[in-house]
Design brief:
Amino acid/polyamine transporter I; about 450 residues; mainly alpha; 18 helices; single chain; globular
Length: about 450
């Protein structure tokens, strides 16, 4: 029998948890290397536009679906569109979260390894070549990577099994403020290095010669990745909200925090990279090869790098909580008695699915035909296909299956949302968001 769903203890707890889900590796790990590979400022400008004009409307749509139904992802769509196949949006989201966490946890494991090594002083005296060799040794050591992948998943399971208030909310209440403080300290150190302005210019000055369809699609995927959109994580999180919470203000707060952290990530990384003569186009290993080398050349560099790794671990965990939560919630159907058992079963299954990604840099070869590792193929599938497709379906579903006046009434609960502002949001969601996603896809594959 379905029981009263859990709820957040406070609005702040919800915002910190949702922001933690949004920020994670998307802003700190993925944004810098994706921006570095795609021209810096031009990519970041497109990313910001995607975040504001596509991400924010979609975020509010997911919030509305979740709070209106008070159901987790699959049941939410089934409640709003019974006797139809629209619940497959929720199933797509749960599947995408399952796959995303499987390789996300691998990166989380790398971070755990680096934290242990940083604390034990194993990075002292290494140069850039030494850090490159260190990363290769870590990622190619199958047992070490699998063990760290397992440890990270256990940390995630232990929090999620505790529920919304006692698990996720309690953890993010101290993790997120600590994350912000550590970030500010690192940014101050980075931007005060000699030659830091070159990195700042790279990050903020848009060179539009670097823009093409692929870059725009990557920026779109990055925006959805950074806000955890398209996989109905925010539908699940908002289902635990009380009716009097202000949805538009919460959505704006989360987008603002995500943008703020994205800017901090760029300011923490690019000024230091350029100041010390490194390249920003290193790709996924940027924070594991280039950044340790950068910090090693700073005064108190070992301390700053250790702080950065702690920051990264907190951000990764807060995102992992939300990804496991959507899977667990879809199985338990708001029955807290099942939560602990389901959290362990789902978490261990996700760990198992992540084994090929964990071994991608080592014994497993590049996949034939697509020319990617299992890790790279999983990342591409989630970020550039499943997230945008999920977002497209949510943008179509919301105005199609929820009456316009019902949407306005739901959003107005606890909010001073004006009708004129609502009309702008509705127009963006119904027309601009789906068209923009389709155009980005068609352009990226060369049709237009």
């Amino acid at each position: 029998m379905s029981k009263q769903p859990e709820q957040w203890a406070s609005k702040l707890g919800f915002i910190l948890a949702a922001a933690g889900s949004a920020i994670g590796l998307g802003a700190i790990w993925k944004l810098p290397f994706t921006a570095g590979e795609n021209g810096g400022g031009a990519f970041f400008l497109v990313f910001v536009l995607m975040l504001l004009f596509l991400g924010l409307p979609l975020l509010l749509a997911e919030f509305t679906i979740g709070r209106k139904t008070q159901r987790e992802a699959i049941s939410a769509y089934r409640t709003l569109a019974p006797d139809s196949n629209w619940h497959w949006i929720g199933k797509l989201g749960v599947g995408a979260a399952f796959l995303l966490l499987s390789f996300y946890s691998v990166v989380g494991g790398w971070i755990v390894i680096y934290l242990v090594q940083a604390i034990s002083g194993q990075f002292v005296g290494l140069d850039s070549e030494g850090f490159e060799n260190m990363f290769a040794q870590v990622t190619q050591n199958g047992w070490l990577v699998l063990t760290a992948h397992f440890v990270f998943m256990i940390m995630t399971i232990l929090v999620v099994q505790g529920g919304i208030q006692k698990g996720i909310e309690r953890s993010t209440r101290w993790m997120m403020p600590t994350l912000f403080v550590l970030f500010i300290i690192i940014v101050i150190r980075s931007v005060t290095l000699d030659g830091a302005m070159e990195g700042i210019a790279f990050f903020f000055y848009p060179d539009f010669s670097n823009l093409d369809g692929q870059t725009i699609l990557y920026a779109l995927g990055q925006a959805f990745f950074s806000l955890s959109l398209g996989i109905s994580v925010m539908v699940t999180y908002s289902s635990y909200l009380k009716k009097e919470e202000d949805l538009p203000r919460s959505a704006i707060s989360i987008v603002s925090l995500t943008l703020f952290i994205s800017i901090l990530a760029g300011l923490a990384i690019f000024p230091a990279v350029f100041s010390l003569g490194f390249e920003p186009t290193e790709g996924p290993p940027l924070i594991f090869i280039v950044l340790p080398a950068v910090f090693s050349e700073m005064v108190f560099g070992q301390l700053f790098f250790t702080l950065f790794i702690i920051l990264l671990l907190f951000a990764t965990l807060t995102s992992a909580f939300s990804l496991l939560e959507i899977v667990v919630a879809s199985v338990t159907k708001n029955n807290p008695e099942k939560r602990k058992k389901v959290a362990w079963i789902c978490g261990l299954l996700i760990f198992t699915l992540g084994i090929p990604s964990a071994l991608s840099e080592g014994i497993l070869p590049t996949l034939p035909v697509i020319g990617m590792t299992f890790f790279g193929a999983s990342d591409f599938l989630v970020s550039n296909i499943l997230l945008p497709v999920g977002a497209l379906l949510i943008a179509i579903f919301t105005p199609l299956k929820i009456k316009k006046d019902d949407l306005f009434t739901e959003i107005q609960h606890g909010s001073s949302f004006k009708r004129r502002t609502f009309e702008i949001w509705y127009f963006l969601l119904k027309y601009i968001v789906p068209v923009a996603i389709l155009l980005a896809f068609l352009n990226a594959i060369g049709i237009i």
